[in-house]
Specification:
Order of helices and strands of chain B: HEEHHEEEEEEHH
Strand order of the largest sheet of chain B: 1-2-8-7-6-5-4-3
Structural class of chain A: mainly alpha
CATH topology of chain B: Alpha-D-Glucose-1,6-Bisphosphate, Chain A, domain 4
Radius of gyration of chain A: 20 Å
Shape of chain B: globular
Helix content of chain B: 25-40%
Number of helices of chain B: 5
Oligomer: heterodimer
Helix content of chain A: 55-70%
Shape of chain A: elongated
Strand content of chain A: 5-15%
Structural class of chain B: alpha+beta
Distance between the termini of chain A: 61 Å
Number of strands of chain A: 3
CATH superfamily of chain A: Winged helix-like DNA-binding domain superfamily/Winged helix DNA-binding domain
Order of helices and strands of chain A: HHEHHEEH
Largest sheet of chain A: 3 strands, antiparallel
Distance between the termini of chain B: 57 Å
Radius of gyration of chain B: 19 Å
CATH superfamily of chain B: START domain
Strand order of the largest sheet of chain A: 1-3-2
CATH class of chain B: Alpha Beta
CATH architecture of chain B: 2-Layer Sandwich
Chain lengths: ~120, ~170
């Protein structure tokens, strides 16, 4: 892992410790969006979303630009730095695994229910 | 607006959280819609474990899976599409408490491997799974990849290169 200042890492990890903020980053990774867009998409108030974007901006993960009445957010300038990429990689793997595990568990439950029924007969 | 959302409940996808809890700890949590005994079983019976541990969406392929789930018992997972170039993960179980706790060592990396502890907490028919990995050092966790997923992405990069060369 390349060298990062401790403060930068702390800010990045703190920013990424919240599920909504990770979602916002993912979203902005696909396309830029206004605070209003993001608030709508994540079912939050404008004030709530402004706070989240503020934290991401502090960590250098997001930049915002106000044009007229619209504040547009985009990824950067640090993009998803090492810390974020690291967490994201782990998240992707576990999320993919657990989606498969959901299917296995569902099937086990179904079988158990079917067995239960046949035993009662 | 809130009222509208509540009146139309969409099935909520259970969220996976990943957190670097400290310099040496990684914590992953997820809730499953099943009692703990079922989730525990899916982690401890190789024929079930095999079905989900290596998701195809991550380009992973689990060749074989042996698990002797008891304290001191060993496990061995072999990944890789290519039998001549396998990628092995192994260790031993250090704690086995049916339906509530499971812990094992990860010995393939020598001393740098973490200890993985799983807890299964059942509440109203659902199970909160907490996976905790404790690494021997900060450096070991910094360097920790996603195991076979990393290896596979490297493999695909090599394949891409090969295809690019072949195409020319």
């Amino acid at each position: 892992m390349v060298q990062y200042s401790q403060a930068r890492l702390d800010a990045s990890f703190a920013a990424l410790s919240d599920v909504t903020r990770r979602g916002v980053l993912e979203q902005l990774g696909r396309e830029e969006a206004s605070i209003t867009d993001l608030a709508g998409r994540f079912g939050m108030t404008l004030t709530g979303m402004k706070k989240h974007v503020g934290v991401l901006e502090q960590a250098g993960l997001v930049t915002t630009e106000k044009v007229g009445r619209v504040r547009t957010c985009r990824i950067g300038p640090h993009r998803l730095d090492e810390a974020a990429a690291w967490i994201e990689r782990h998240h992707q793997l576990w999320d993919a695994r657990f989606e498969e595990l959901d299917k296995v568990v569902k099937e086990m439950k179904r079988k158990e229910k079917a067995d239960g029924r046949s035993k009662r007969k | 607006m809130d009222a509208v959302r509540e009146s139309k409940p969409t099935p909520v996808k259970n969220r996976t959280t990943v957190q670097r809890k400290s310099e040496r700890e990684l914590v992953v949590t997820r809730t499953f819609d099943a009692p703990a005994r079922i989730v525990f079983e899916a982690w401890t019976r190789p024929e079930l474990f095999k079905q989900w541990w290596a998701p195809r969406s991550m380009g992973m392929f689990l060749r074989s899976c042996e698990m002797d789930v008891r304290v001191g018992g060993r496990y061995r997972l072999v990944f890789g599409h290519d039998a001549s170039n396998p990628d092995e993960f192994f260790g031993r179980y250090i704690e086995v408490t049916p339906h509530s706790r499971l812990a094992w060592t990860n010995d393939e990396g020598g001393d740098a491997g973490p200890v993985t502890t799983l807890t299964f907490e059942e509440k109203a028919g659902k199970t909160l799974l907490v996976l905790h990995e404790l690494y021997p050092s900060k450096e070991a966790l910094d360097a920790a990849g996603t195991g076979a997923a990393d290896v596979m992405s490297e493999t695909f990069e090599q394949l891409d290169e090969l295809l690019a060369v072949t195409a020319n």
